[in-house]
Amino acid sequence: MFKFSYNWLKAESEIGADYDGLLEWLNLQGFEIASIEDYGDDKAVEIEVKANRPDMLSVAGVLREYYAGRGRRETKNFTPDVPLELTDDNGVLSHRIVVDSKDVHRYCAAEIRGVDNTGETPEYIKDRLMKSGIACINPIVDISNYVLLQIGQPIHIFDADKVKGDIRIENVHAPTKFTTLASTEIELPTGALLISDDENPLCVAGIIGGHAPEVTAETKNIIIESANFDHIIERVTSKKTHVQTAASYRFERGVSPATALPGALICIKMITELCGGEYNKTGYMYTDGTSAGPQTITVTKKRINSVLGSDLDIPQICKYLNDCFFGTECDDGENIKITVPDFRLDIEYDVDIIEEVGRMYGYHNIEPQPIKLYAPYVENPVNKNANKLRDIMVGFGFIEVLTYGFIPGSAMQMLHIKEDSEYYGDIKILNPLNNFYELMRPSLAYGLISTAVSNMSVGKNDLRIFEVGKRFFRQKDHEDGYNEKNVFAALMTGVKLGRGFGIAKDAKFSVYDAVSLLDAIMREFNIKYEIRPTDGLGMFEQGAGGDIYVNGRRIGYIGKIDPKVLLEFENGKLARDDAAYLEFCFEGFEETKRSIEFDSAYPSVTREYNFLVKNGLHFTDYSPEIKAASDIVVNVSPRDVYVGAGVPKGFTSVLIRVEYNDPTRTLDFEEIAQVESVFLKALSDKYGITIKL
Amino acid sequence: MAQFIDDKKRELAEKLEQSDAPDKLQGVETAFRKVMKELFAEMKALPNEQKKEVGAAINDFKKDFEERIAAAKKKIAELSKKDLAVDLTVPSPEFIRGKIHPLIRVGRMFEEVYKEMGFSIAYGPEIENDRHNYEMLNMPYYHPARDMQDTFYLEYPKVLLRSHTSCVQVRYMLEHKPPFMIISPGVVYRVDEIDPQHTPCFYQVEGLVVGEGINLANLKWAVMESVKRVFGPEYKVKFSPCYYPYTEPSAAVDMGCIMCGGKGCRTCKGTGWMRVAGAGMVHPNVFEAVGYSRETVGFAFGWGLNRLPMLYYKILEMRKLFENEISLWEQL
């Protein structure tokens, strides 16, 4: 982001300025207008500057872009005519400057003695700083900030009288404490660039100053630092210390070494004019040789057009590049040798040049072209299964919800999931937004239960909801120590079939409906499954939870949510009815082809039997006895279960429908009675199951 | 005789008046036939000179009363029709179709469009590492663009929640050779405090096309065409220069704000546009990182999928997408 006064830009422009034209051009070039503050006769315009264009973080940069749009090919020279001889003799100033780091690319230092910093900063400077959101401190500090905004060069000024001995710039070798100008103590990471004198740390280079050499109204003698520090160490230090300043923001994105000297010269001129004093005609300049000369890149016309999908000729390409201050040479009508201006640190490769040509040509002028590429289509089974599950659920009247992948740190206690459970989640987020988002979810249960109770709080008690998402778990041998699976979960509670239209009273969801749902889904996928009882998952009511197995592998769980678990949730007390839940991993589901079996031409006979079954027995275990009695038993299906009046304690009444058929003949009742006696005996002998009288 | 006819007439008329059901009307009709029979029999006994006059009177009576019976029959039939009619404007609550979440619905629309164009669908993990999420995408540890994609970290070093599904593309490229066209839909995470327009977790659909001859004009087509097919041809789309570390040239895709029709409102921050995607030609550094030659060409795009259902269903607040107020989704 860069915010500037439009009038300032206009005052600097050598070709006048057109406000609407400027905004339109900036927008077209991808510098979005983030905000505009209206000051009547002026406007403060804030533009979004992406990380690749730090050259746009100054009035000079925006002006260059404006010139580019207007075809003025010469940038404004902001360097004043101030005679300053540069030397690499570090003893030329009142304090010796010792640069001892590879992270310093330029260090330009100049000295002014006898300044008067007691006056007022001129109105125009105050006005421009204020509109850029920078507070005014005192004339010298304000001028240093002004230069930063004007040409993008961060400036630091030391009170020379407060510096004890040498000014030394070096990387710290161990984490080091530092107190900033704002009196906050920060810890510099190893490698951070620290500037110190013989006694005290003075400032964190390019990031923030300290109290020791602070410029105040009483300051008389100053040393101006206009330096260039490496963007990597600036970024790392700023991130680790959580200190970001206008200077660090620019340094971490990259500042051109070419502005170090102009920065110092502008400061000398402005300070001597406004605060008086005499400057040392010799300044110190350290340079490590980076960016010594202009960079050149060669790109072919063919490459430019093939990347953009355009048909531009050499004069057009050269015009666009020249308009944004690139030098071009082309002798053979194909290869273009391009000289990159020193302020464009982002231009490294041919593609960077191609983007410049593209944006100057105008993305809106690029004609869309259909893709002419054949790539084989590869099916994604997880995506296919997820969509199939969604379609199935929509058919059953369920509503899909999406919940966050992270859940509260207390979620495992709330769900009564114990540490030894496979579904216990303890993958913590180091920097959670708050304690609601501390853990990666090991199950979708927390999200679905929260959704259910929050809907109950607005009077929605009859719910059928589902979610398709990831569950996360630890796995030592998996990459990074974690793994995740795509799972499906559904929760149902409240009325499933309301009173009226032939229904005498509300029918409510029970755990058997969850089983029915699972069964219907598995039929759709043509997958055989079994449910085995579990005590492992504390989320379910004792005896009303089971694990879902496919091919002997546990893929999920199903059961009635323990009402005590619901009470752990805010508004959980609003839950009046049973809540049934199921969740399973559907990765690896493959729908197998099936064939249709044609019905027998002879009529079937259907009989229903009301059995008294001891609790703990499973339909899937005892019902095969019925089937085994004879080949004429073609179908055995449960119709109802009942516990209550008339059923002894510890037993359940189970109504079972049996269909008898023989594809070769019509059955007679005696035959059926005989088969009945076979399975009734077997059920009674093996399971103690009797007909309920 | 005339008196007799009048008496019968009155008697039958009274009965007819009280006939509000088909069986009663049947009774009146039977009585009427009987009266007619009697009258004609009596007329026969009259002297010839009287026969003509009385015959005419009986015939008038007969004609008139038959008409009245027919009218009464019609009226009763109509009444009974109404009595039997079912109010077909009353649905029972028997058939309720469920709903797919709006975000997934719109995501599926885009998936369908891209599948028609020949794209395959690739998935990848949400728990990622720094290498796939940043380093290989031309975002070394010191890159300032990381600020825009700050994410959540887990306790093992450099393990994080992916900030974009571009890491799926990285994984795909590490395992496949061009040409290919893929989209990678999925959940991504950013350190964004929850407010009306921000959620710490959202959805993306990213696309990657790598193969000979692929250019920026193809990218513009893929992006524009998908909007056209999902939202309709009249929809405004803007394709402008932008910056992403992993693409060069890069582009931003904006759609005209549906809330204000492009005039500028709170939702679009007064710009009239909503940023819906980032795109560009894949940076040679990315190709190099996955072991391809730097000369490889391809484009990538990434839809911020949260914005699209907002535009499609006029959902004013992004956070609503994760609040799961069932009564809202029931309206879909």
Structural class of chain A: alpha+beta
CATH architecture of the largest domain in chain B: 2-Layer Sandwich
Q: Which ranges of chain B are low-confidence, i.e. pLDDT below 50, for 5 or more consecutive residues?
A: none
CATH topology name of the largest domain in chain A, in short, is BirA Bifunctional Protein, domain 2
- Structural class of chain B, please? alpha+beta
Helix content of chain A: 25-40%
The CATH homologous superfamily of the largest domain in chain B:
Bira Bifunctional Protein, Domain 2
Q: Which CATH first-tier class of the largest domain in chain B would you pick? A: Alpha Beta
If strands are numbered along the chain, what order do they take across the biggest sheet of chain A? 20-23-24-30-29-28-27
How many domain units of chain A? Answer: 5
CATH architecture of the largest domain in chain A: 2-Layer Sandwich
Number of helices of chain A: 18
| Strand element count of chain A | 34
Biggest beta-sheet profile of chain A: 7 strands, mixed
The SSE string of chain B, one letter per element, is HHHHEEHEHEEHEEEHEHH
Mean pLDDT of chain A: 93
Biggest sheet record of chain B: 7 strands, mixed
Counting H and I runs of at least 4 residues, what is the number of helices of chain B? 10
Number of domains of chain B: 2
